[in-house]
Amino acid sequence: MAEPLLSVRDLTASADDKTILHGIDLAIDPGTCHVLMGPNGAGKSTLGHVLMGDPVYTVGSGTIEFAGEDVTDLSADKRSLAGMFLSFQAPVEIPGVPLYSFLRTICQKRPDLKMTARQFRKHVTALAEELEMDPAYLTRDLGVGFSGGEKKKVEMLQLLLLEPKLAILDETDSGLDVDALGVVSRGIAAYRERTGGALLVITHNTRILERLDVDETHVMVNGRIVANGDAALIPNIDANGFEQFEEAVAVAEAADATVMAENACQE
Ligand SMILES: Nc1ncnc2c1ncn2[C@@H]1O[C@H](COP(=O)(O)OP(=O)(O)OP(=O)(O)O)[C@@H](O)[C@H]1O
């Protein structure tokens, strides 16, 4: 059997001395679409950031392998070059850095995306139009003065430009009006059609999934993945919420507590 594109084993991570992720196991095959759901504060965004190498978080144990390489200790830019991509729940603003220059610079770092200045201008303008973004926005500073929905479209522009092997989309749908939601979901579908890339979609809103064939759904509660299933798990969560996983959470937490107690006894 082919190796997974992403393989996360027993991953534990913390910030400010608080453990947020507990023993995460996750495998994503090339070209597949995974959905990560869970209540507010479960640790979904944290997982996205830790996978991408955000230095705010400390990996306590476990490994992250991507495309056959152990990336656990790699910086975010190296993970990006390897083909990983994270769209932020709250995209950043960088005054003084025009969006166009930012996009040109990140493309120049990727030998496989080499383009002349003219080719780049044509390509990025076409992508902006496809996302129903005014190309004049490309001359504005990154994120500055953009509405919430416009910021999300800029994230999609980066996705279509960079064509990563794995895109982690962190609530790309939040704050979008119904038209913008349509544009963004068409952008995600275009990414899959053109590149065959894999997706890890973090969301509370199932409308963004309507155009996607979901292969696997994962449920995270209190920093643990407590259920895995296929696309049928999504309407189940919509109808019944996350309370149904309480028992699974309690079992996982009790098992962790037992391991910790045993380790303490051995020390
Ligand atoms: N940098 C940080 N420092 C301290 N605590 C953090 C940090 N990042 C996340 N946390 C905490 O970790 C927990 C999980 O947060 P996270 O944003 O990952 O949840 P989430 O599942 O994405 O939630 P939501 O659905 O509301 O976006 C929260 O209690 C949050 O306050």
Q: Care to give the gist of this entry?
A:
Keywords: ATP-binding, Nucleotide-binding. The chain is α/β, with parallel strands linked by helices and 267 residues long.
What does this structure look like?
Helices cover 38% and strands 26% of the residues. The protein has helices spanning 44-52, 76-82, 99-108, 117-130, 148-162, 178-195, 233-240, 246-266; strands spanning 6-15, 18-28, 33-37, 58-66, 69-70, 84-87, 94-98, 141-142, 166-170, 198-202, 216-221, 224-229. The strands form three sheets. It has a six-stranded mixed beta sheet, sandwiched between helices. A four-stranded antiparallel beta sheet has the order 2-1-4-5, with helices on one face. A two-stranded antiparallel ribbon has the order 7-8. Strand 4 (58-66) and strand 5 (69-70) form a beta hairpin. The N and C termini lie far apart (40 Å). The model has no long low-confidence stretch (mean pLDDT 91). The chain binds adenosine-5'-triphosphate. Adenosine-5'-triphosphate is lined by residues 15-16, 18, 20, 38, 40-46, 56.
